[in-house]
Design goal:
The chain is built from ten helices and 15 strands. With 339 residues, it is α+β, with helices and mostly antiparallel strands.
Length: 339
């Protein structure tokens, strides 16, 4: 195989292997926590939260609900939507910053629960960008023939690393999971309207560590720690970085912003979504927004939002969909796909 532009091409044959999204699913904890309920325990208000973030509620994991259980539930729904049996899955990549255990990988617990033993299974940790990192990695493995059908999952129980006395951060996050089934499909290299992932870009900048991080870990404090964030600085970097990476992917794909049917962004803050859309010249009506219902679910937010738009019929076959996210590290990225 040779790399030709943005596709892996079978040399001399005019063929490509594309990673096609076959189905999606999502899962949320049983408990819904409104801003009003949160305001009864934290020095905040519904008005303060909505004005600054657009968030109205979030889901919080309870007893017996873990990153693995949420991921498994979302995966099962994605498999059902795709019409794929779990035994056919030979690759599972789970994006999470809140694994069930330090090791083994939470993906192996999902693999066991689904009964698809023996294939590849590992976790990816890129915080809120994790799903984009996992999606791009799965795409690479499918195109090189290492696997045929993959589950790509974003799942988090962020409520368990929050400082519930810090009103600037605890109101922003929630728990949940989203999953998609990807399949490697042979196609023609010159078919610009074929379904599949088209182009992606990933970035990281470790210099920004102190703007968004967790103050604990096995190697440093031997504790889980709590999330710490300097929100104003994160906002500024997010708007600039996301606009730049989206333009990079558009250039790689050879399409204009006007051709995009839907943007499915990381659901961090309604203000970031608005600002990024303006920088790209996109109407906010083309942006899938679920932050009001789910809050920031980190690696789960992109697949959760995607599945929501699939379920309500907004995203349809043939649509051009852009995924984008930025998270602690900083890490950020974007991926363009044809449905």
């Amino acid at each position: 195989m040779e790399r030709d532009g943005r596709q892996w091409v079978v040399a001399g044959a005019g063929k490509v292997i594309r990673s096609v999204i076959r189905g999606s699913g999502s899962a949320l904890p049983r408990r819904v926590v409104s801003n009003a309920e949160l305001a009864a325990e934290v020095d905040t208000s519904d008005e303060w939260i909505v004005e600054r973030t657009g968030i109205r509620q979030r889901y919080i994991a309870g007893e017996g609900e873990t990153t693995a259980t949420l991921a498994t539930d979302a995966a099962r729904k994605a498999l059902a939507a795709a019409g794929v049996d779990a035994a056919e899955i030979d690759l599972i990549i789970l994006a999470t910053a809140t694994p069930d255990n330090t090791f083994p990988a939470t993906s192996t617990k999902v693999q066991h629960a689904l009964g698809c033993h023996g294939g590849i299974a590992f976790d990816v940790q890129a915080v809120c960008s994790g799903f984009l990192y996992a999606l791009t990695t799965a795409d690479s493995l499918l195109r090189t023939g290492s696997a045929k059908k993959a589950l790509v999952i974003g799942a988090e129980t962020f409520s368990r690393i929050l400082d519930w006395e810090d009103r600037t951060t605890c109101v922003l996050f929630g728990d949940g999971a989203g999953a998609i089934v990807l399949e490697a499909v042979d196609g023609e290299a010159d078919d610009d309207h074929a379904a599949g992932l088209i182009a992606s870009r990933l970035h990281a900048d470790g210099r920004q560590h102190d703007l968004l991080y967790v103050d604990g870990g096995p190697s440093t404090t031997q504790t889980v720690g709590h999330l710490r964030m300097r929100g104003r600085e994160v906002f500024r970097h997010a708007v600039v970085n996301l606009a730049e990476v989206l333009n990079e992917v558009l250039e790689d794909a050879g399409v204009s912003a006007e051709e995009i049917d839907w943007v499915v962004p990381h659901q961090a803050n309604a203000r970031i979504l608005d600002a990024t859309a303006r920088k790209l010249g996109l109407p906010i009506e083309k942006v899938v927004v679920t932050v009001d219902q789910h809050a920031n679910t980190s690696a789960a937010s992109v697949p959760l939002a995607f599945d929501t738009a699939i379920q309500d019929g907004r995203i349809k076959a043939g649509d051009l969909v852009m995924f984008e996210a930025m998270g602690g590290g900083f890490t950020w990225g974007a991926c363009l796909a044809r449905m």
